[in-house]
Amino acid sequence: MAFTSAALQTIFASPALASRTRTTSYSFPRIASVPRLSRNAVRCMATGDEKTEQSSEPTVVPPTTSQIPTPTPPKPQAPKVSTKFGDVLAFSGPAPERINGRLAMVGFVAALAVELSRGQGVFTQISEGGSTWFVATSVLFTLASLIPLFKGVTVESKSKGLMTSDAEMWNGRFAMLGLVALAFTEYVKGAPFV
């Protein structure tokens, strides 16, 4: 209301409108006598014989946006990571696919290296003592992968640059597929792949 009143006063009191009113037969009443009310002004409607009283207190003008300090946003906190055994080793937990992927990467590279150096296929490697190495490697990599997870350290917090947690996940998936494809090819062929 106060803004509209001030805007109308500005428009009607402008010299362009005043000169226009002189040339035409229309005359506008003087609006300059309308009191200006601040945004926080209080109006009191008296009932009956009571008279309206105006407050003698000064009106408080709200601060402008440049005077109000902008609050700094809080730092985003990392979500709490569960360190319970069941949560870490759950099907959708952080451990199973990563551990399997890491073992598949080691197994795929080791299988190809032994096949190139000795000419033995995957099944021959397993039957001639490879299962002992497989169990030892599995235990070592599983413990090495679980210890940080039980301490609450996430894989994502330690991944930077090219060595990201997503890159490790995809490499593990490809290594799992590669190891299965290598074993299947040697089974169908009946001979080592290389």
TrEMBL record:
<keyword id="KW-0472">Membrane</keyword>
<protein>
    <submittedName>
        <fullName>Uncharacterized protein</fullName>
    </submittedName>
</protein>
<feature type="region of interest" description="Disordered">
    <location>
        <begin position="47"/>
        <end position="79"/>
    </location>
</feature>
<feature type="compositionally biased region" description="Low complexity">
    <location>
        <begin position="58"/>
        <end position="69"/>
    </location>
</feature>
<keyword id="KW-0812">Transmembrane</keyword>
<dbReference type="GO" id="GO:0009507">
    <property type="term" value="C:chloroplast"/>
</dbReference>
<dbReference type="GO" id="GO:0016020">
    <property type="term" value="C:membrane"/>
</dbReference>
<keyword id="KW-1133">Transmembrane helix</keyword>
